[in-house]
Amino acid sequence: MGSRRSSNYRNPCLTLHQPWASLLVYGIKRIEGRSWPAPVRGRLWIHAAGKVPEAETIKAMEQFYREIYALDGITDLKFPEHYPVSRLLGCVDVVGCVSREELVKWEAVPRSVRLEGQTRFCWLCEKPQKLVIPLEMRGYQGVYNLERKVQEAAMRGLISVPPQPLPVKFPLANPGGDGFSVSSSSAMMSSAAAAAAD
């Protein structure tokens, strides 16, 4: 499957449990929360882990997103009909990474986005795309390189996701720069570097 851990990500992929994997690829989930900062910018492939989600978990997460979107006046979310497992589902663009403290104070983004920040680092995800036919494959922990032949097959099957009612473009202060903070603060960068070294 290629390198499991590497600073040289050619086709970076992240494995998530369901329903979070599909919610990200469908554009409902805009923040991917981690205890470590995003090691990549740009396309990140999303793979669904092999564990079949319980119906109660799916129901609870769909209700969570209904409730936070409702705070922005959105009541017509379109959830996935299925939550496949052990499959490559699609991709998102990681445009930056901020701390939870920065996200909750970031008034330039919708309130529902600010409420998604539940972990130390919040990866900012835009431009979701999904595979017409999800590809069966094995995943790994952390960010890893997708095997080239899988990536080539996936590129041929990608389609844009119909936009959700509240698509987000994150207004980063320095989109071409470090991509780690709203304000490009040195404190945030120091925190990210320390976490990466752990």
UniProtKB/TrEMBL annotation:
InterPro entries, per database record: ASCH_domain, PUA-like_sf, TRIP4-like
Biological source species: Genlisea aurea
SUPFAM superfamilies in alphabetical order: PUA domain-like
Gene3D superfamilies noted in UniProt: Hypothetical protein
Residue ranges of domain ASCH in the record: 14-121
Pfam families listed in its UniProt record: ASCH
Listed name of the protein: ASCH domain-containing protein
Superkingdom of the source species: Eukaryota
